[in-house]
Amino acid sequence: MIITSEEDQIRLRKIADTEYEIYALLKQRYSPRIFKDEKIKPGQINQLFEAARWAASSYNVQPWRFIYAEKGSEAYDKIVDCLSDFNQQWAVNAPLLMLAVYKEKNEEGKENFHAPHDLGLCLGNMTIQAQYMDIALHHMAGVDWEKAQKVFNVPEGYHVSSAIAVGYYGGDMESLPEDLQENESAERTRMPQKDFVFKGEWKD
Question: Measured between alpha carbons, how far is residue 26 from residues 2, 23, 80, 129, 177 in Å?
């Protein structure tokens, strides 16, 4: 394979240099801030949510909910307006934006402490399904969740957790400010396993 385009070069650099061999889609996944100027196909949107639908959840409660909007719509602009100033710089490159929400209590009215965990599991499913389809997801903590709750009439008992930018890999690097251009092409890094995996007892 001949690597010619800037996009190919970036994606090659972003392949994780793992200590142990893992599934290829996990190695290739990263969170871009540029995307192709192309709408996500409707059927593929359904595939993403179907992958989320079949995630594991505690007692099969499935506490996740999503609001999504396509670029050019009023709802899309409303999501952008709820993002942090930093994320607004680049998230407008995405053809689709989502808000990820979880239900705070179970059917008995008791707090579901596992709901954020279950939302994370379903987003993991969605992320790998997206990678399989050459679609990138960039998860964002930088969202004014209280504002989003009001703007989108999210009912009491549900909590906006994060926002997600969705689009096909690619796009124009020049659409980013210079500092983000450098970040976009930087090599990915992670802490070593010894810093977060402890056998038998906790170790500082």
Answer: 23, 6, 28, 11, 28
Residue with tokens 């709750």: 149
**pLDDT, tens only, 23-32:** 999 999 999 9
| Pairing mode of beta strands 135-140, 96-103 | unpaired
CA distance 147 to 140: 15
Show the tokens assigned to 115. Answer: 């709901």
Distance CA 126, CA 51 (A): 5
Q: What is the pLDDT of residues 36-71, one digit of tens each?
A: 999 999 999 999 999 999 999 999 999 999 999 999
**Which helix (H) or strand (E) element contains residue 132?**
helix 115-132
